[in-house]
Design goal:
441 residues, alpha/beta, Rossmann fold, six-stranded parallel beta sheet, binds uridine-5'-diphosphate-glucuronic acid
């Protein structure tokens, strides 16, 4: 099958590479010439484990190509995916669909023969209908179907999520289009992946409902964590105790500084707007959005209180800036609120992140950037872990203590154990667990 993927962001590039791995002929299209030129030379525009090898293998096998030429790519393809960005529109929280609609118009102009146009970008309910309208108005005689096929991949494990998904959702009632989608996903049928065929609207809503549910689950455990601190309970025991109930499930119950990234913040806001406009507000999600915003500020206050309540002139070492590990993505990362709040409170911040600093340098001002973790620590009044990169999980605590002015750690991801930190001589603050001081030696 011949596939064109319009947009080579996270979703587009990973999906394109994975479909070529399935054996299809895929052309990835992007307007950004430098991105395409880079891809021709094997340079990935994003950091995603395994992606470079996957791309290289499929390019070599001549199943995967890159181009800026949308017209020829569309003309030569059976299935066209729209995987362009849908950022939050300024002001009202709605998803900005201008890139999706522009792509639909260009596809319509170039289509040749029966074509399946698939929206893979996260798009609000009703977008598929609008895309269909645009194509129909541009090419009244064209033979095509518009299908919704949302992606559920996580950054950092995107390829695994694509190759072994919990489910595939396909929104269309057209049997002809369904048949094309079956062929496309054949390798997943063979491993008995559940495939949900549904209407386009349901499919579009499934994507938002899944992301907002997960965002709510995280926000729930974050609030329970706050309560744990007040009543001397341990949030990990509570999460385990409830998560073993199959109806609740153990995943996404890890407390932290609030969810971030390119999806949850944007999608929660967008669904809140859609729901309000539809006259059926989602009050739970409205609260989730509000709590998650407040939480990031509260994390800064927690750090300031760990250095004695006044950050003026204090040095704070920060480890991890990306919204989660194994990505270079800084979008809506909690660090973007926490670090400026510390600086505004008079602190000097030294920071290190294994992959995110290139991006972070454009987004955070007044930070002293370090080349590795220990460089952040000399004479620091507190060490803060914002993102749980593996290399921060086994710090040489003796070395850390000897470098710092005072042995204070604020661990916003609960990477360490309170007893271990107390025995190592630290004042240790984490999330949803009792704060501890050094054990008397
Ligand atoms: C999320 C969803 O997990 C994917 O299923 C979805 O396809 C994707 O959005 C999307 O819509 O494209 P992603 O944003 O890559 O994926 O990251 P997650 O691993 O879900 O993490 C999101 C945020 O929640 C991170 O800031 C993470 O630190 C936080 N989180 C996650 C927690 O605080 N606790 C948890 O238990 C899990």
């Amino acid at each position: 099958m011949r596939v064109a993927m319009i947009g080579t962001g996270y979703v587009g590039l990973v999906s394109g590479a994975c479909f070529s791995e399935f054996g299809h002929n895929v052309v990835c299209v992007d307007k950004d010439e430098s991105k395409i030129a880079g891809l021709h030379q094997g340079q990935m525009p994003i950091y995603e484990p395994g992606l470079e090898d996957l791309v290289e293998n499929n390019v070599r096998a001549e199943r995967l190509t890159f181009t800026t030429d949308l017209t020829t790519s569309v003309k030569d393809s059976d299935v066209i995916f729209i995987a362009v960005g849908t950022p939050s529109r300024r002001g009202d929280g709605h998803a900005d669909l201008s890139y999706v609609y522009a792509a639909a118009k260009e596809i319509a102009d170039a289509m040749d023969g029966y074509t399946v146009v698939v929206t893979k970008s996260t798009v609000p309910v009703g977008t598929g209908r609008e895309v269909e309208k645009i194509i129909r108005e541009t090419r009244p005689d064209a033979e095509f179907d518009v299908v919704s096929n949302p992606e559920f991949l996580r950054e950092g494990s995107a390829i695994e999520d694509f190759m072994r998904p919990d489910r595939v959702v396909i929104g269309t009632h057209s049997e002809r289009a369904q048949e094309f989608m079956r062929v496309l996903y054949r390798p997943l049928f063979l491993i008995e992946t559940p495939i949900v065929f549904t209407s386009r609207q349901s499919s579009e809503l499934i994507k938002y409902a899944a992301n907002t549910f997960l965002a709510a689950k995280i926000t729930f455990i974050n609030e329970i964590a706050d309560l744990c601190e007040k009543v001397d309970a341990d949030v990990h025991d509570v999460a385990k105790g409830i998560g073993l109930d199959g109806r609740i499930g153990r995943k996404f119950l890890h407390p932290g500084p609030g969810y971030g990234g390119s999806c949850f913040p944007k999608d929660t806001r967008a669904l809140v707007s859609t729901a309000r406009d539809s006259g059926s507000p989602l009050r739970i999600i409205e609260t989730v959005v509000e709590l998650n915003e407040q939480r990031k500020q509260k994390m800064a206050e927690r750090i300031i209180s760990a250095v004695g309540g006044d950050a003026t002139g204090k040095t704070i070492a920060v480890l991890g800036l990306t919204f989660k590990p194994n990505t270079d993505d800084m979008r809506e990362s909690p660090s973007l609120d926490i670090v400026p709040a510390l600086i505004a409170a008079g602190a000097k911040v030294r920071a290190f992140d294994p992959e995110g600093m290139k991006e972070a340098k454009h987004m955070l001002e007044g930070v002293e950037w370090c080349e590795e973790e220990y460089e952040t620590m000399p004479d620091a009044d507190a060490l803060v872990i914002i993102t749980e990169w593996n290399q921060f999980r086994a710090l040489d605590l003796e070395r850390v203590k000897s470098l710092m002015m005072s042995p204070v750690m604020v661990d916003l991801r609960n990477v360490y154990e309170p007893t271990e930190m107390s025995n190592a001589g630290f004042h240790y603050y984490s999330i949803g667990r009792k704060s501890v001081g050094p054990t008397a030696q």
